[in-house]
Amino acid sequence: MAGAFLVKYAEIGVKGKNRHVFEEALRLDILKKLENVEGDFSAERINGRIFVSAASDFDKEDAIAALSHVFGIVGISPVTEVTDHSPEGIIAASVDYFRETYGDDMNFTFKVDTRRADKRYPVKSMEMDAKIGEALLQNFNSLKVDVHNPMEVLHLELRDQVFIYSKTLPGAGGLPLGTNGRAMLLLSGGFDSPVAGYMVARRGVYLDAVYFDAPPYTSDRAKQKVIDLGKILSSYTGPIRLHIINFTDIQMAIYKNCRHDQLTIIMRRYMMRIAEKLAQDTPDCLALITGESLGQVASQTMKSIFVTDEAANMPVFRPLIGFDKQTIINMAGEIGTAEVSALPYEDCCTIFVAKHPVTKPNLNIIKASEMNLQAVSDELVAAALESDKVILVKAGEFKVCGSENAE
Ligand code: ATP
Ligand code: MG
């Protein structure tokens, strides 16, 4: 069993009595994400950190990529295991480690920080720090010691296993998946909704998703784009049940019976109603998520959001509400959805959109307009729900599960 990574987490450390629940969720998600990486991994909780070991050779780059998709991790330190536990063995390994890690680039200050979990170890921590520091200075004369504000720290952990490390790569942050329930993401093909889903999932929330499809006005390519975005998201969130709802008849009915400048806002209200019904049929799913951002387009003014929001009773999370478009696009780049979002496929809203949609809808007027649909509304919603196709979207693969909610 060789040491592989030391994983650090921050926020879950302050959760009091629930701390072990968070740590266990994190440990399990780490193992889950590493399932797809070559190597036989195990993970154990040690002193407010998680130590990942590999029983076999493993692909370091793939493992780091997998760990960077785990919510709750703030730092990933690749560790080097030292097999010779004698002080001389550890000193020699530290010199080798510096040579391999920093090569010719040793113009920096450093210190050594030893943690002696195994108190039976014959040399005390401070003494070990000094011995290793001295050996490093002797071998690499451009190095300087700075114990107060070093540029690099060589960490030595003395326990059943002995390992050293000095590099910490950033993690995704947030809270471990599943520690905060489940929510239904309204997922369209743009930049916003995938980022919104990511942000809520990062707070420990599992995702389900719904896409409103409008064939033949929208193409299969547009639908595929949403599936592809779901796949990227699921590399962080685990499998996502993506509901595909046929929205065409609702859209046509609104088009025929309501003022065209009200089309988008009424459509949005139907989306909220249907998404809420799907969420109500999903165990533990207690909120909706959209990619709305205040003022971004006509349907996202304060008044529009007020009118949209009124259609659903569940809490609606809009994590992008205060973000500029460019910030959202940058985030999409960071999480890996930007490239797919940038593809130029139409969605149902762009096809029927009026030249001058209302920017200040009035709830009473919109409700009055919806009365024109009263006779067919329930039937249309029922038919839309009936059309539900659930796709279990997974990173790298997906399978169609038919029209029932997949378990
Ligand atoms: P996005 O970038 O997420 O497509 P957008 O800037 O295009 O958003 P709108 O088209 O106004 O914004 O949609 C606002 C939100 O409504 C979206 O972020 C998404 O959550 C939801 N939404 C819009 N169209 C659909 C759809 N066809 N299917 C599912 N959700 C949708
Ligand atoms: Mg859109």
List the helices and strands and how they pair.
Elements: E1 2-8, H1 19-34, E2 41-46, E3 49-54, H2 60-67, E4 75-78, E5 80-82, H3 87-102, E6 109-116, H4 125-139, E7 144-145, E8 152-158, E9 162-165, E10 169-170, E11 182-186, H5 192-201, E12 206-213, H6 220-237, E13 240-246, H7 248-257, H8 263-280, E14 285-289, H9 302-309, E15 316-317, H10 325-335, H11 338-341, H12 348-352, H13 363-371, H14 374-386, E16 389-394, E17 397-400
Parallel strand pairs: 6-7, 6-8, 11-12, 11-14, 12-13, 14-15
Antiparallel strand pairs: 1-3, 1-4, 2-3, 4-10, 5-9, 8-9, 13-16, 16-17
Helix pairs in contact: 3-4, 5-6, 5-10, 7-8, 8-9
The structure holds adenosine-5'-triphosphate (ATP) and magnesium ion (MG).
How would you describe what is shown here?
It is a single chain. By secondary structure, the chain is of the alpha/beta class. The chain folds into two domains: 5-170, VC0802-like, CATH 3.30.2130; 182-393, 3-Layer(aba) Sandwich (Rossmann fold). Helix content is 40%, strand content 21%. It has helices spanning 19-34, 60-67, 87-102, 125-139, 192-201, 220-237, 248-257, 263-280, 302-309, 325-335, 338-341, 348-352, 363-371, 374-386; strands at 2-8, 41-46, 49-54, 75-78, 80-82, 109-116, 144-145, 152-158, 162-165, 169-170, 182-186, 206-213, 240-246, 285-289, 316-317, 389-394, 397-400. The strands form three sheets. Strands 15-14-11-12-13-16-17 form a seven-stranded mixed β-sheet, sandwiched between helices. The two termini are 36 Å apart. Bound molecules: adenosine-5'-triphosphate (ATP) and magnesium ion. The site of magnesium ion has 4 residues, from loops.
